[in-house]
Amino acid sequence: MSEPAVPLHQALGLTDEELVAIEARLGRAPNDLELAMFSVMWSEHCSYKSSRPLLRTLPTGGPDVVAGPGENAGVQRIGGGLAVAFKIESHNHPSAVEPYQGAATGVGGILRDIFAMGARPIAVLDALRFGDPGDPRTRHLVNGVVAGVGGYGNCVGVPTVGGELVFDPSYGGNPLVNVMAIGIVREDQIMRAAAPGPGNLVVLYGSATGRDGIGGASVLASATFGAQDPSKRPAVQVGDPFAEKLLIEATLEIVERGLAVGIQDLGAAGITCGVSETADRAGTGIIVDLDAIPRREPGMAPFEVLISESQERMVAIVRPERRADVAEVCARWGLPCAVIGRVTADGDVTVVEGGLDGEGRPLPGARELARVPAAALTSDAIVFERLAAPPPRRRPAPAPGVRPEPAELLPERGMDPGAVLVGLLGSPNLASRRWVYEQYDHHVQTNTVAGPGRGAAVLRVKGTRQALVATTDGDQAVSALDPYLGAALSVAEATRNVSVTGARPLGVTNCLNYGDPTRPEAFWQLREAVRGLGDACRALGIPVTGGNVSLYNEAPGSAIAPTPEIGVVGLADDVDRLVGPAFGAADDVVLLAGWAAPGLGGSAYADLAGGGDDDPPPLDLAREAALQGLLRAAIGAGLVAAAQDVSRGGLAVALAEMAIWGGRAGHFRVAVAGAPAVALFGEAPSRALLAARPDAVTPLLALAAEHGVPLADIGTTGGDRLLVELVGEGATGAAEERGARVADAIDLDLGDLRHAWEQGLPQALGGEG
């Protein structure tokens, strides 16, 4: 007996409940083409049907916010009539299926979000996460993704200036490829993704439409799948960076000359998304002439044309009298260009076959294939109130009224702290990323002041004294233990990485990478992360200007660690006043600013020692704000020669990195109140190292007191050995008497530290090192 046929809506990924909701919005049953349109627009990737209620709780406004969530990218003014556009998005699922094209088209897609706003893209940052680096599949994915990011970015002429590379077993079946882009735009040329003015033309320009990427991002990012599932491969888009470069220049000329009243890039859900979103934002409708859409393959069905995610395509809303000008611009840049429809006043997305007349009406004999209210596909899409439930506790709760105490019993007895430091510096997550970023062009356009490899990226704003500072950060290790704290820590570290240069954080863009929202535990993780993100941004006075939610990041039998990827852009009024993290001179005084705290849970140290049952250190957002205020004030006053935040790997790793980058080490004394392991390798937030000339120490101490931030002199720079001595109550007594606590000083040659740091990643990925 043959299997019963699966209903079409289920085959397209729609549930019975969603079909009922569609029928309610249409007042009738949808036809097959309309079902296909709903299937991509109501996918998790396009509709945010699980996360939309959560995202509404985030702080999105501010005096400098010009465009926020709902636009192609967030935009904030930076003065002088200029603004910065920035956004981060995911291309996780396509990259798991076809790593090169998945990553390449992720770069292409985020760049289109930027220049669709009228901004010229000036930088890309890539935040990449994979499984065990010793696994052959991981190495295949790493090689393909890094090549895809570099291959697209290098060819399109936009520098890749920073990002992250993280290895964690939870990403073994589902890697994360999050890409952030930044652009500069004149305030009076900011373009919106809307289709105003009934009678205006809908102009499609760029590459022709093909079958590649049918349901690609919208479908792949909206369901869990096996990593080796060959049925997913045809859905991955194929990118052409040379076509994208032409698209950038044509779009920016169209914007500069005022030839369009709205522009939208075509990404997930293709033409369906482009026309429905622009119409809904303007409160209008659009009629689409299916026959007018340029195609590169014969025999494409209507649904294939409408939901294809072929890359390097844009839609412009153009007044009829500007049609010839737009066509001339596209011809000069060698791009196909076609009028594919008209803006209407009825609020519907209507698709016809057989052509339109000069007024946008169907020709005699033309056939209407679909008619759907634009709002039904977009702003009025279905929203689910998902069930959230925390996981069972993984460690015993303390007795009532007893404060939990971190265990701090790592690593094993008597471990040499110098060996721990070398091990951390050579570990896959802390070693030099040179192998990655040397494959990227990070100087093209000549805006890059500080590129990848040592802290936040710095980009010159040409024609001004200003600079933009950008970074990405995401703490999946703490998020796996406490998703609220992990998200808040991610915001704190990303903004601290900007403040530690002297720049003022402007705004946050987020990429929330989580599991199947229909699982209560996974949705609870997402809900807690959004709560932590919102609380941190409110405490630090920073708006969330946009971003992306990527759900269903699961492979059979496993889910990723909750991963709140945070991108931050900051502004410096004078690029010459910014500081870097390298020790720059001998005999500088090094000071530790901020507060120590117990807890080794989620740390690189705990990971090196094989885990443990400790809690992560707490975060006090008021203290974090005070520290960042001190950093900006001290650097702005010219009192700081170098600065570095204390984060992954703790104080010892931060000192080692500053020494490696500066080519000089130093002699330091670290106060130990409790466990030496926490003092050296604990990752308590709200701390930074400052290097200053001796005559700047007194005013620095006074400034720290004004800001209410502890500041301690811990030593001086110089020499080629890193000597870190432990002083205080916790540094006394034999190691064996203090269980697993570390007592010995660190005394290592700078060359040995540099060797471990430089060779760690190539060796982890199977290179010679």
Task: Walk me through what this model shows.
This protein has 769 residues and is α+β, with helices and mostly antiparallel strands. Among the domains are: 191-378, PurM-like C-terminal domain (Phosphoribosyl-aminoimidazole Synthetase, Chain A, domain 2, Alpha-Beta Complex), CATH 3.90.650; 404-430 and 579-764, Alpha-Beta Complex (Phosphoribosyl-aminoimidazole Synthetase, Chain A, domain 2), CATH 3.90.650.10. 33% of the residues lie in helices and 23% in strands. It contains 25 helices and 28 strands. The strands form 5 sheets. It has a 7-stranded mixed β-sheet with strand order 8-10-7-11-9-12-13. Strand 14 (448-450) and strand 15 (457-460) form a beta hairpin. The longest helix has 21 residues, at 136-156. The protein is globular, with a radius of gyration of 27 Å. The model is unreliable at 216-222, 225-234, 395-413 and 733-742 (pLDDT under 50).
**Model regions low in confidence, pLDDT < 50 over at least 5 residues:** 216-222, 225-234, 395-413, 733-742
Q: State the helical fraction.
A: 25-40%
Query: How many strands in all?
Result: 28
Alpha carbon gap, first and last residue = 60 Å
What's the main sheet like? 7 strands, mixed
Supply the helix-strand structural class. alpha+beta
Under CATH, the homologous superfamily of the domain at 404-430 and 579-764 reads PurM-like C-terminal domain
Q: What fold name goes in the CATH topology slot of the domain at 404-430 and 579-764?
A: Phosphoribosyl-aminoimidazole Synthetase, Chain A, domain 2
User: Number of DSSP helices?
Assistant: 25
Strand content: 15-25%
Radius of gyration: 27 Å
Question: For this structure, what is the CATH class of the domain at 404-430 and 579-764?
Answer: Alpha Beta
Order of strands across the biggest sheet?
8-10-7-11-9-12-13
Indicate the CATH architecture of the domain at 404-430 and 579-764.
Alpha-Beta Complex
Instruction: Tell me, rounded to a whole number, the average pLDDT.
Output: 91
**Anisotropy-based shape:** globular
